[in-house]
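Check these lines:
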Amino acid sequence: MKLYLKYIAYLCAAFFLLQACNVKKFVPEDELLYTGAKITMESDTSIKRRARLKAELESVLRPEPNSSFLGMQPGLYFHYKAQREKPGFINKFLNKQIGEEPVYASDVDPLRTEDLLKNRLENRGFFYSTVVSTENRKEKKKEMDVAYNIEVPTPYLLENYKLDSDSLKIFKEIGNNLENSPIEKGMRFDLAALKLERERIDANLKSKGYYNFNPGFLIFEADTNQYEHKNFDLFLRLKKDVPTESIIPYKLKSVNIYPKYEVGTDSTTAKTRYAEKNFFQKEIFFKPKHLDPYILLEEGQYYNPENSRNTARRLGDIGAYKFVNINYTEIDSLSTDSLGVLETNIYLSPLNKRSLRAEIQAVTKSNGFTGPSLALGYTNRNLFKGGEILNVTGDFGYEVQTGGGTQAGLNSIQLGLQGDLIFPRLLFPINFDKNWFSYSIPKTKTSLGFDYLTRSKLFSLGSVSARFGYLWNANRFVTHEFYPISLNYVNLGNTTQEFQNILDDNPFLERSFNQEFIAGLTYSFLYNGLIDGNSRHQFFINSTLDVAGNLIDAISGHGEENPQTFLNLEYAQYAKADIDLRYHLKTGSDSKIATRLFAGYGLPYGNSDVLPFTKQYFAGGPYSVRAFNTRSLGPGTYTPPDEEGAFFDQAGNIRLEANLEYRFPLFPYLYGAVFADAGNVWNTGENSTLVGGEFSKDFMNELGIGTGFGLRVDIQSFVIRVDLAAPLHDPSLREGERWEFDYANPVLNFAIGYPF
């Protein structure tokens, strides 16, 4: 909201300023406006990374002058106007949005800034630098700026990096790790680099068991006495009187796990010993043999915070726990002068075992279908006391075609039932060591689903699907999904004569429905850098490979029938791959430019000459090219006859799409967007039975292009989105008529979530 109001405020401010307003007339007689400072650097030698050093010095300059806009200072102007006895509503409003307190010459302390610059230079190895400030006062203009002239001497360069050590074991650990140090001969003295070195050494010592160590125990000393020129030796030492417990490693004496921990309850009863760990639970809530693989902490192991973090993350990924808390307690009675002992306690607070959820939506699609939908979900966690999760979802949807035309009143009913059983472990013939997947343990997912769709005056379509596979996180950003078994049975029934006529006229569409059995494998790779909210540059990659029919084709025996069947069902054979690339550039705290590029290709072969209907690509709609109705764009320059209307979903085996969107805040929880989309689908080979639908080298001139604006209600990542878009280039029109901004007939898109 603030950013949007600022845009309006700046426009209003520019208007008023152009009417002739000069802020200088508001400056008190005994003051001058501070307009900033400049740094001039002189040195008797070349400076490595000179631009970076100068930028760092400029960051020290304080205070910052008042901002300007096209050579004017609207923020300062409306601050002064708002101080009048009767400022008026507009001045008060603009001052609240963009007003700035004036920065005067009296607010500037050049001598203090000189000291800050000298200190920063010394921290970077430029000792005995000279900084001279000069005030440039312009009384007539009521301005003052400051120039800082800096003479930078030759920096001190490192000759040797040494460790002052004695017989303590910790010195051996530090010494062995110095080989990996980024501090090397010839580098400039740099205080920031030394701080990072202390933190690096501390992290390494922690990984070796030094539980009580901290980087503040390390000090650096520089010695220049041995060199005539500006070189120095760097010595690393431990501070005096460091506590004994801080310089000895610690081992884990015992690992205690509380699989069903509740605050305030007795957690010391019913101990079970498994895999050299202690499991405390009154009754079996989580079987130890299934919980143990998630725990990387072992008795006799040296303390390592990385193992602790990985254990906590892995336990949290099970999906059965809302809190994971790992505590360490020192056992003084067992500790010695050379080794400490820790007791490890892992407290696990479970989520509710069962949960129900319901969603009711009123859906309005851009193809004119409107109606309610109801989804019911049931979740059972830790189903077999091994972290298993059962999700069952049922949905019902009813849609009716609204508006005029011959298709008004058409309706569709969709019923679905989906069951997922997720095992938080790898069900595989070969056993893997629990450290094989260092970041997280793969999950095994089995799914079974039933769907039924009926469209009045057209057809009914039933399908059964089943999948078995694995999903796992390689790290914070990368996710893999691999389903070696993916089965789908589709049955087209209750076709009307009207729809049969459509199939008779379109063999491509008819063949896509005839492939009743799909059996294959799928693999998906996901890199999601969008979760890093602090990064200015965010990337997203999702690539999927879908291959079907090869194993069935080998088993079928290659009979004389064409096409081949398996269990009296025609099966599909194809390979399909696509990639979704996204790049988001943050332009402000709540604004960004979002881009997306999608490319997909499906190749039917062997027993198939077209892709199955459910595997084809479509374009148009709220998650695609928003200036065109859902599934109404393409293929290529194809133009469907008017009488078919909503009967025919236009599809292809190639899809290309590009999107660009600028998102900005308007009010709390309300965001705006302006966007442009381009894309289409095409067919290749025998798929190209539709006039104009074949992919060619002229594909760039066959893109559907549209632009528009939208609103998003974003409440804690739950997004309700409305977009209004109109086509700029419609490939279904005749050449010479395609480029036209049809703003009089926009397409309204209503959706949940961002489009990309």
About this structure: Residues 2-18 form the longest helix (17 residues). DSSP finds twelve helices and 29 strands in the chain. Confidence is low (pLDDT under 50) at residues 1-5, 643-647. The domain at 250-350 is CATH 3.10.20.310 (Ubiquitin-like (UB roll)).
